[in-house]
Specification:
Elements lengths: L1 H16 L5 H12 L4 H7 L9 H26 L3 H7 L21 H15 L3 E2 L5 E3 H4 L26 E3 L4 H10 L4 E10 L11 E11 L4 H16 L5 E8 L2 E10 L16 E10 L1 H6 L8 E8 H9 L6 H4 L2 H4 L7
Parallel strand pairs: 1-4
Antiparallel strand pairs: 2-3, 4-5, 5-9, 6-7, 7-8, 8-9
The site of phenylalanine has 11 residues, from β8 and β9.
């Protein structure tokens, strides 16, 4: 008994003195002390040598020793998995102050373009529109020809459109109308979609123009869809987005893919009728283009124009975001200056 107790005391010292090290050393430790042929097991098997009246005392010492050996093992293992606190315990250091405040995780904010896109899409979703997406690299037919743009239309010019060098038939889409063409070709009617996405135009970068920007376009095709439906839908849309007091007006316009075509203005939100430099003293600001889908476009996409009619509209997200947040330089959206981006708190 004496000898055994002395040996246990030595082992204890040995365990306390061990500096926790790598995984291989930990395994050696486990085999030596806790393995099936290890020291703890061996000591327990000595139990039968001890006289009956000393068994209780010896058992207590042995259990305490076993506990020490196991705690060392657990702490060492945690230290290896990178837990500072347990590492400190394993090393026998003073310990770790659990009351220290945690490291704050910096939270990002959504990009203003994403916020406004989500808001626009959610308004149309409530009206029963679903979201459709399509490729940014597109062929000439889906971006231009199907939409009734003649061969020599100036929008097709290299000055306006980015073409891919390897395949001149391929280009970066200049609007998300390519998605509308693709949806029409599927020929599942009625169609009621909005198409958000990035578009590209060969423009010199300035405060008012960029070589890429974002659009949401919409398309509704069914039997007996009229211009009145278009007006009412867009009126509801701007009231949801900008508030009940906003007024709208339509001006006749021209797009090859709609007939009749119009541009829609809203009453200037900044000066409320007084005239300012955002509305250029007119008290109106243009926000989108729209019209009734041209019968030729329906035909090109395999839809019978005698049975179906539809309306389409398209707006630039940057423009609407600038109006909503009074931002005066388009370049801010793509410079990724955190001081700019931080100011937008997500509600969408
Ligand atoms: N596709 C047009 C553009 O990019 C916008 C538009 C869409 C106009 C639908 C009318 C109807 O400028």
């Amino acid at each position: 008994m004496e000898k055994l107790l002395e040996q246990i005391a030595q082992y204890k010292e040995e365990i306390v003195a061990i500096e926790p090290n790598g995984a291989a050393e930990l395994e050696d430790y486990r085999i030596k002390f806790l393995g099936t042929k290890g020291i703890v097991k061996a000591l327990f098997s000595q139990m039968k040598q001890v006289s009956n009246d000393q068994k209780k005392e010896f058992g207590a010492v042995l259990n305490e020793f076993k506990q020490l050996a196991e705690e060392k093992y657990e702490a060492w293992k945690s230290a290896l998995s990178g837990d500072e606190a347990l590492a400190a315990t394993a090393k026998g250091e003073a310990g770790f102050d659990w009351t220290l405040p945690g490291d704050p995780l910096p939270l990002g904010s959504r990009h203003p373009i994403s916020l406004v896109r989500n808001e626009i899409v959610s308004i149309f979703r409530r009206l029963g529109f679903s979201v459709a997406e399509g490729p940014e690299i597109e062929d000439d037919w889906h971006n231009f020809t199907a939409l009734n743009l003649p061969e020599n239309h100036p929008a097709r010019d290299m000055q306006d459109t980015f073409y891919l060098n390897q395949t001149p038939d391929w280009l970066l889409r200049t609007h998300t109308s390519n998605v509308q063409v693709r949806e029409m070709q599927k020929n599942k009617l009625p169609i009621r979609i909005v198409c958000p996405g990035r578009v590209y135009r060969n423009e010199t970068i300035s405060a008012r123009a960029h070589c890429f920007f974002h659009q949401v376009e919409g398309l509704y095709i069914d039997e007996q869809v009229s211009f009145a439906d278009l007006k009412q839908t867009l009126y509801f849309f701007v009231q949801e987005l900008f508030g009940r007091d906003v007024k709208i007006r339509f001006r006749p316009s021209y797009f090859p893919f709609t007939e009749p075509s119009a541009e829609m203005d809203i009453s200037c939100l900044l000066c409320e009728g007084k005239g300012c430099n955002v509305c250029k003293q007119t008290t109106w600001v243009e926000i989108l283009g729209c019209g009734m889908v041209h019968p030729k476009v329906l035909e090109n996409c395999g839809i019978d124009p005698n049975k179906y009619t539809g309306y389409a509209f398209g707006m630039g997200i940057e423009r609407i975001t600038m109006l909503k947040y009074q931002i005066n330089d388009l370049r801010l959206f793509s410079e990724n200056d955190v001081r700019f981006l931080q100011q937008f708190k997500a509600s969408f």
